[in-house]
């Protein structure tokens, strides 16, 4: 749905993280509204071109701050009256309500409707103001969650018990980490301090439960966020996961993509919203984040995904900020986070677990040597998130490869022995290695093919044989050996689908995974050989041995075969979505 | 930390080096860019998926101009690109360049002509509005700003880019024609405290 086609535009005046604003989309009559944050109800020149169908003011305090503009507004206004909080006690709340009532009585405004969270709150507000106050429309029922979450706005974190796999786990979460649209689906919410009457009202308002819904009444929708990354790893992995999801059930996938190689996703049939990072633009990050938050929220409200997925370790806060905005909060968050990070990596990023429903860890064949924080450290704030470790994820497994003859024909290769070199262009200092490879290949009459990344500049040498192909895995049967870096995707693509000689040249960089450990593990399993930067004297003998293996046609049948199972993935994703399926229209339980 | 402030002499030297090396770096980058643009297959990425969909469904392109808060957001920086150098690129206006779905034989010379002028005398910071994604990796390599708009009319993107980047003009790469100009270009803030 495009904004402006059928969606009512509702301007929301109040804090973006107000719990009532976060459940507005669960009011059946507002399910398709487009909620737009307002800074002021009086439109300036730029805002006049954005006509609103309604202005919704989230508290009497906001209303008092903008009262003259609200009274003169030509747009219908719904004003939500709230009871006292810990910060604004009973006396102050009543004073504010009476002040508002006096102003409204002095300037009668038919376009302003008063509303409170519950019938009890409405009665209280009517008594105080002497004006008619209705109760807010009931929310769509959701499944009654088993978990109970005590909330106290005086405490920044909530502690609760979460039953996972028959184990009772103590969990912590920042109380404003998740939208209440998600929270009410994950836990029964109750206020621990009865003096915070507004919180008591909010908890009562969102506790509308109904029977479980077996399945979504339409195709699943996933909005996949792909960071820029160093190479093509994030794109390739998310594409593999999207294809696995689509192989079992109809799933619409849209990519919010920061990678300059987004054309690959588009060629595979996925719609793209292409973005630039703050670093790309050299923009002030908070300003850039404001743009990302607003536009990401617009996409959330129009595409209405069931899943927001993010692949990468560092999740920019704009994603979570948008998910907390009105109209954006009834989808599950899937964090695709691979292991094998450097042992020195700061584990602070793991605190983002509290924002997630599921952490999907793509399996790593070298997990036995994983010494990174995702293996050895546990986040302090884990919220409701659960962890699911899959078999290795590789796009190559899902794509049919060409026959050796066809692959060679398509690559324009003649007869002979060919070795593919794919070292990754970002961080390696490969000059010495390239020289050694070229010399040894020449000596053994092997032709080198240099794989060029779509992100890389054209090669310096005019005489080199270069191929820029994606996905490269389809052409591997026409190649007699591969020298490559040991990133997650290249490593698993080769180990799972290729049986000829492989020589790893791992690169370790702070932004990347522990490639040395991964490649060394493969060497210990006799799956491949590895060039270690700290033993330069071994490089030439190893290249020589590798080239001999290429020339003699050595095969490696012992390489593993286990890869991601689409059925198991879909089952786990459906489990994750189960709490969110209650948004189909139902009658509330009595 | 042994020293809180950098020595003024060091700062002066680095500033001097920057003024010297900046143009030289831009020159080398421009040489690389020119050589890249000589290659006929520069924008041809051989993407080979077994089941290529006949048409990729278009998705809603979120537009900040649809939100009331847009008027309150400060415009984002637009990069000058690595093939040009000047001391204060922020002073240059932001101009949108629309790159339609052009044939490589048209696209490469047009880009080269524009970026040559940009290298010799930078007179604007560019946001390239791209109908296709072919040119994105190339533009990204040289730190240019871009915006993928798909098959939508570039004029539909104007309001959004006016808000996002304070864009004042939009031109067609192929013809050089002005497609749009801001009615009231932003007035520079008066400089205070200087003669």
From TrEMBL, chain A:
Gene3D superfamilies: 3.40.50.11190, Glycogen Phosphorylase B
UniProtKB keywords: Transferase
Domain of life: Bacteria
Molecular functions per Gene Ontology: transferase activity
Protein name: UDP:flavonoid glycosyltransferase YjiC, YdhE family
TrEMBL record, chain B:
Protein name: Uncharacterized protein
Domain of life of the organism encoding this protein: Bacteria
């Amino acid at each position: 749905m495009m904004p402006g086609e059928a969606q009512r535009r509702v301007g929301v005046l109040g804090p973006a993280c107000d719990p009532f604003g976060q459940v507005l989309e669960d009011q059946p009559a507002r399910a398709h509204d487009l909620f737009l944050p307002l800074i002021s109800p009086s439109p300036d020149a730029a805002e006049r071109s954005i006509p609103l169908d309604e202005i919704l003011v989230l508290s009497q305090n906001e209303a008092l701050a903008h009262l003259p503009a609200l009274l003169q507004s030509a747009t219908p206004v719904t004003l939500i009256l709230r009871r006292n909080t810990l910060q604004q006690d009973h006396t102050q709340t009543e004073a504010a309500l009476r002040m508002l009532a006096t102003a409204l009585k002095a300037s009668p405004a038919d376009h302003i409707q008063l509303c409170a969270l519950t019938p009890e709150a409405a009665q209280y507000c009517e008594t105080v103001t002497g004006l008619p106050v209705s109760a807010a429309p009931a929310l769509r029922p959701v499944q009654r969650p088993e978990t109970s979450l005590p909330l106290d706005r005086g405490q920044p974190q909530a502690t609760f018990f979460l039953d996972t796999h028959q184990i009772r786990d103590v969990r912590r979460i920042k109380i404003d980490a998740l939208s209440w649209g998600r929270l009410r689906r994950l836990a029964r919410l109750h206020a621990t301090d009865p003096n915070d009457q507004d919180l008591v009202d909010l908890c009562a308002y969102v506790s509308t439960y109904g029977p479980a819904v077996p399945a979504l009444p339409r195709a699943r929708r996933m909005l996949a966020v792909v960071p820029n990354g160093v190479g093509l790893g994030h794109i390739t992995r998310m594409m593999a996961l999207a294809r696995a999801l689509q192989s079992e059930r109809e799933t619409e996938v849209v990519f919010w993509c920061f990678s300059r190689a987004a054309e690959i996703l588009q060629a595979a049939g996925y719609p793209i919203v292409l973005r630039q990072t703050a670093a790309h633009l050299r923009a002030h990050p908070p300003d850039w984040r404001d743009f990302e938050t607003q536009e990401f929220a617009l996409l959330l409200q129009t595409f209405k995904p069931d899943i927001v997925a993010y692949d990468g370790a560092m999740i920019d806060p704009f994603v979570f900020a948008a998910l907390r905005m009105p109209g954006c909060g009834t989808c599950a968050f899937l964090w695709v986070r691979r292991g094998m990070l450097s042992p020195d990596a700061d584990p602070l990023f793991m605190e983002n677990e509290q924002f997630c429903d599921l952490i999907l860890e793509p399996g790593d064949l070298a997990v036995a040597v994983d010494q990174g924080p995702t293996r050895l450290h546990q986040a302090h704030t884990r919220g409701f998130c659960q962890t699911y470790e899959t078999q290795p994820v590789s796009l190559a497994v899902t794509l049919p490869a060409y026959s050796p003859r066809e692959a060679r024909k398509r690559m324009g290769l003649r007869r002979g022995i060919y070795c593919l070199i794919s070292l990754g262009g970002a961080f390696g200092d490969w000059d010495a290695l390239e020289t050694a490879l070229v010399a040894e290949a020449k000596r053994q009459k092997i032709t080198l093919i240099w794989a060029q990344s779509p992100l890389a500049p054209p090669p310096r040498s005019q005489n080199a044989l270069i191929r820029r192909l994606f996905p490269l895995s389809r052409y591997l049967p026409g190649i007699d050996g591969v020298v490559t870096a040991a990133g997650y995707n290249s490593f698993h693509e080769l180990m799972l689908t290729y049986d000829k000689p492989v020589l790893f040249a791992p690169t370790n960089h702070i932004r990347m995974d522990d490639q040395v450990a991964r490649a060394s593990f493969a060497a210990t399993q006799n799956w491949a050989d590895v060039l270690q930067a700290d033993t330069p004297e071994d490089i030439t003998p190893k290249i020589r041995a590798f080239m001999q293996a290429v020339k003699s046609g050595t095969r490696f049948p012992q390489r593993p075969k286990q890869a991601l199972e689409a059925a198991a993935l879909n089952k786990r994703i459906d489990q994750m979505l189960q709490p969110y399926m209650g948004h189909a229209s139902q009658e509330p339980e009595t | 930390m042994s020293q809180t402030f950098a020595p003024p002499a060091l700062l002066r030297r680095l500033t001097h080096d920057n003024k010297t090396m900046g143009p030289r770096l831009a020159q080398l980058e421009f040489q690389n860019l020119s050589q890249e643009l000589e290659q006929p297959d520069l924008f041809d990425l051989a993407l080979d998926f077994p089941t290529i969909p006949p048409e990729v469904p278009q998705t809603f392109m979120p537009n900040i101009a649809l939100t009331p808060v847009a008027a309150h957001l400060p415009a984002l920086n637009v990069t000058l690109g690595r093939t040009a150098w000047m001391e204060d690129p922020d002073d240059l206006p932001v101009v949108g360049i629309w790159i339609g779905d052009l044939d490589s034989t048209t696209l490469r010379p047009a880009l080269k002509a524009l970026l040559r002028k940009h290298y010799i005398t930078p007179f604007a910071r560019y946001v390239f509005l791209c109908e296709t994604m072919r040119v994105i990796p190339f533009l990204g390599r040289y730190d240019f700003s871009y915006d993928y708009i798909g098959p939508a009319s570039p004029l539909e993107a104007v309001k959004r880019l006016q808000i996002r980047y304070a864009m004042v003009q939009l031109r067609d790469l192929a013809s050089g024609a002005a497609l749009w100009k801001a009615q009231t270009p932003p007035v520079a803030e008066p400089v205070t405290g200087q003669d």
